[in-house]
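Help! Submission page says 'invalid entity' but I think these are all valid:
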Amino acid sequence: MSPAATENYRKLMQMAAELADLSSAEALLGWDQETKMPRKGIEGRAQVSATLAGVHHERLTRPEMGEALAALRGNGTALDDEARAQIEDLWWSYTRATKLPGDLVRRLAETRSRATAVWAEARAAKDFPRFAPHLKEIIALSREVAEAYGYEADVYDALLEEYEPGARTADTAVVLSEVKDFLVPFLRAIAESRKEIDLTPVLGPFDRAKQAAFGEQVVRAMGFDLDAGRIDTANHPFCSGIHPGDVRLATRYKDDIRVGLFGTIHEAGHGLYEQGVAAALGRTPLGSIRSLGIHESQSRLWENNVGLSLPFWKAFYPSLQATFPGPLADVPLDTFFAAVNDVRPSFIRIEADEVTYNLHVVVRFELEHELINGRLGVDDLPEAWNARYAEYLGITPPTPDVGVLQDIHWSSGLFGYFPTYTLGSLNAAQFYAAAARDIPSLESRIERGDLIPLKDWLVENVHRWGNRFKPEELVERATGHPTRADEFIAYMKAKYEPLYGLR
Amino acid sequence: MSPAATENYRKLMQMAAELADLSSAEALLGWDQETKMPRKGIEGRAQVSATLAGVHHERLTRPEMGEALAALRGNGTALDDEARAQIEDLWWSYTRATKLPGDLVRRLAETRSRATAVWAEARAAKDFPRFAPHLKEIIALSREVAEAYGYEADVYDALLEEYEPGARTADTAVVLSEVKDFLVPFLRAIAESRKEIDLTPVLGPFDRAKQAAFGEQVVRAMGFDLDAGRIDTANHPFCSGIHPGDVRLATRYKDDIRVGLFGTIHEAGHGLYEQGVAAALGRTPLGSIRSLGIHESQSRLWENNVGLSLPFWKAFYPSLQATFPGPLADVPLDTFFAAVNDVRPSFIRIEADEVTYNLHVVVRFELEHELINGRLGVDDLPEAWNARYAEYLGITPPTPDVGVLQDIHWSSGLFGYFPTYTLGSLNAAQFYAAAARDIPSLESRIERGDLIPLKDWLVENVHRWGNRFKPEELVERATGHPTRADEFIAYMKAKYEPLYGLR
């Protein structure tokens, strides 16, 4: 680089580091709101969050930023690959942000914060109409955002881009249709197998403190560093990468051991990704992971491809039995393994089994796509939700707390987020298959409780790169081809056909 | 106000509200660092805190702020009293901040954050030399700050002003000398009384979860709203008023019940002050309390004048006995009351009794005054500390963790803070005496466990005003005269002379 370009680049990275710090502060405010904040803090917190979002936006869009970016992009051949990727990443954020008026950003942050609080109350009260006006407000603001960003084919594209850079609604709809077209008859075949799995071993009640202790044991075995993170409880499980050295998991426990256990493993999968980003990318644009389809692949790989596998339970079941001798001492491994892999249509997405899970996602993707396009109104949403559940899963939620009010996403304005869950399932199947090709005797190492070779493979092939590659390129580098449905479908069949005697 | 002045005032208050929000975010970062943050988060957190401090400073000192303030101050007669007080308060912050270069602010925040972490390690390792280079750095930066602020007589004045607006070192030194001149012989007389108080009832061990439950019962009785606050544990007790609706107490528990119990009551006294500021002052300059001599009066009034009084224990001792029937069922009230009021020179300030407490403060005030003036070097500090303890309290700390390393203040750069603790004791005695004059049968209401009339008196006379009045004016309005040592001395004598048979 020329001395002028070097100086420009240094200034740009300094500005980017301050933006990363502001994001960290915003992440902490959000984490705290969901886990620790007292009830009456909500109004004050909404204002603090709005102000921080405003400051962030103001600093991201300041003229010095645009000038430095323009100068460096015009001078591209002099930059090394990583520097070019840093600049393109920041350019992506900058151009998106300059399209949004600061006032819209502030209104959105404030409305989100309030809507999230009302959503929690409405869910507890099973009262959709209480939440409806806030959802309308959020949708109207999300459309304003999409119009400001601009799009070619579909207003939803502009929102999807936020969570899956480069993805288009039409393509995503095709992949999700393939998944749905496979799953709906597959689920029907499972139902028709009439195989009854005994759920008694997992329904509990299991003592929550002991659940937490066992969960922590698994999280440590996965290689999650609890000196650089923590585990708390919240209404809705999540993972927050606040800054390097501080990655936080939130989970929840119910009597049914599957809820807390697989929720914890899921969030720890996200947490490993955050902890695995190369230290040199800390406080840089590439240090912040943007593709949720990749992020979700890490959580679902650990939750499903590992946590629901027989090798994993060969390693960990003795310790679980020792933790809960009362209910589990006399339950054989095979019985327990069948119970955690029980396939059964149910209402709550985050408690769903692996087979029905992606049908929950398809419902949400289809509905939010229609909401954003104005083809579905908020007042008609509960009915549409229930109709879609009847069609795909064969069940109808009795109350909105286990139906349309169950997820935090819409109250938080996260439209375009849901389809990335299914992209995550597909990527998880691909990454796991690739890791199994690369790591000698992967399954027998997992059987011995040694999860570290898999974690190291993921760090090497996925985590350490941060946001260096677009999702498609990252997946292709690690697995040999871009994201497809076929390895996921093959994995589903290989696991569930024998369990349900379908072959 | 003229339309132009009204518009200027509106803009100013909007800028001030954003500054209040930034302060809230900084407060949350600080609270989290002391209570929840994982160990390896420290480096990242230091950068986030430094960036937020930089943004805060930049926005406080921007030209629009100076212009609006100058225009409104030049137009003073058109403003009502409260608006004038708002403007003067913001002017105080603005002028102090404009004197500090942004770079100094950033270096200070970063150094503080790191030094605090090293202090915690050094204290655990009883290793003063590990902390010494960080303390030197903090002192050098504090002197830079004082020089930038400017002062007339004493470099320490510029630092004291931060915590006790309007106070001067020379005056403070006189009041603290009066206190010391009373306490040193008073403590000697107590020692010579040879009265041996039995500490067995308070030394425990007491179960920590039950201590927390009893503490919460007392905090609720004081009128602290736990829907607008919370209680956590930390290495060093503190109270953080994050924003209206969110006031957090941090305490710690030891086997000795006095540590957690009176620490909790103390912090709840601070917390009541934060919760009691008039809602209309939220997000305004006057909503943030600046005088620590007043803040500390609230904590010490509840901790000592109430929490260590016989009427209080007539109300709460039965419940404490019910919580800990094993150790306390057979201990009469008088025996317990004497034990919590035991006077005994000891090493740790925050565990000290009421009589020796202010001698701990005098040691720190004298030493930090000399450190800042360069009359004492950091390498000589441990020896100077121990010599002063020998002279005033008659004891010598065996290791630095219970000596010079015990307090978080210096690692956090809080020079000028310590003397406000003693101003707090003096103000507490004055406020309590005034409340006792105003509230019919105050003592018999406390005996019945009804603490709310006292809390309401404090809200009315102290809390609701926020930073509306300078400390001296506030004290005079509430008690009839400014802060003096005599009511504190009278209170000490009235309580401890009979306990130790000195009359």
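Support: the input was valid. A stray whitespace character was the problem, and the output above is from the cleaned input. Chain A has two domains: 3-150, 169-499.
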